[in-house]
Write a structure and sequence with these properties.
Blueprint: H1 32-56, H2 63-81, H3 88-102, H4 112-120, H5 126-154, H6 160-174, H7 176-203
Helix pairs in contact: 1-3, 2-3, 2-6, 2-7, 6-7
């Protein structure tokens, strides 16, 4: 068969899909308000994690929760007082700090330390708990540096919490109305849960 009779193959080069929303490399990232917001939210969410850990034996990453709450707060201030908009990269710094603080429950505060107290009746003092938590946190950061290089940069393994948080944050800034609806749903659920706990608590009082 001649070369002329062979079917001609046409190559269609597909254009790379544009990221939406496009990355903003000019907007501020590591800002004071981003770090402080993450610290405040992380401190509040750490109580939630310790409670859920003692209640059901499981704690949560809290990255998505911190991203939604900070978005609702700062974008609300932006709409009311025309402050600087809460950027995507700032929100990423915020959720990182908040997740790190909220995950402190994994330092034995909901498993090993309560179990030790139940076994021998010894309750750790506040100072000892602070030293223990600080030491475990430093150890975790040191170990995570090596694990990150191998698992994320070399092996390119997907990080479930990171992927979920990145997708949520991108969707928030791509679809602002849906993000506001999610924030309102999150706040409404929290208010309803708090009201229910108060009703149940005071209903037991004669």
């Amino acid at each position: 068969m001649s070369a002329a009779s062979e079917p001609m193959e046409t190559r269609v080069e597909s254009e790379p899909e544009a990221e939406f929303p496009p990355p903003d490399l000019v907007a501020p990232q590591l800002t004071i308000r981003a770090v402080l917001t993450g610290m405040v939210l992380g401190g509040l969410l750490s109580f939630c994690n310790i409670y859920s850990g003692l209640k059901i034996g499981w704690s949560f990453n809290m990255s998505v929760t911190a991203a939604l709450l900070s978005f609702g707060f700062w974008q609300g201030l932006h709409a009311l007082f025309k402050t600087r908009s809460w950027g995507l990269l700032e929100n990423n710094i915020n959720q990182t700090a908040a997740s790190a603080a909220a995950s402190i429950a994994s330092a034995g505060l909901v498993a090993a330390i309560p179990a030790l107290t139940l076994i021998n009746g010894y309750a750790w003092t506040y100072g000892v708990l602070v030293i223990w938590t600080f030491a475990v946190s430093v150890l975790g950061v040191v170990v995570a540096i090596g694990l990150r290089r191998q698992f994320l940069l070399v092996d390119r393994l997907p990080f479930p919490f990171g992927i979920a948080t990145a997708s949520t944050v991108k969707e928030m800034y791509a679809k602002g109305r849906e993000a506001v609806a999610r924030v309102l749903a999150l706040i409404s659920a929290g208010v309803i849960a708090a009201a229910w706990k108060l009703i149940v608590h005071f209903a037991k009082i004669p």
